[in-house]
Amino acid sequence: QVHLVESGGGLVQPGGSLRLSCAASGSFFSFIIMGWHRQAPGKERELVATISRDGDINYADSVKGRFTISRDNAKNTAYLQMNSLKPEDTAVYYCNTRDIYNRPSSSWGQGTQVTVSS
Fold first, then answer.
1. What's the CA gap between 87 and 109, in Å, rounded?
2. pLDDT of residue 26
3. Which of 17, 45, 73, 111 has its CA 20 to 30 A from that of 89?
4. Which residues are bridge partners to 93 per DSSP?
5. What pLDDT is stored for residue 21 in this prediction?
6. For residue 54, what is the DSSP state?
């Protein structure tokens, strides 16, 4: 299984930016896809963005044009650049990975808190 460590969250004003990092370790074939999910209080965990090892990217409609996912394969790290943040982006953000068969290959970690407020 893949071990993940998320970081980079914090408190930011509306319109501000944050960059989240997800450092992965484990078998090379266990994190073909890396992605970000988020969960707001009282809400279900939702997909934010995913990126494959080859660079194929998908975004949730709610973050298109504002968030950018990337990964550095040499560092086994995925990033989420979040711009033009809105209060509704407030949530705990979690990293996850999937194997070549699109199966989850990591357990949920502690996540990193993002709070967008004046």
1. 23
2. 85
3. 73
4. 38, 112
5. 98
6. T
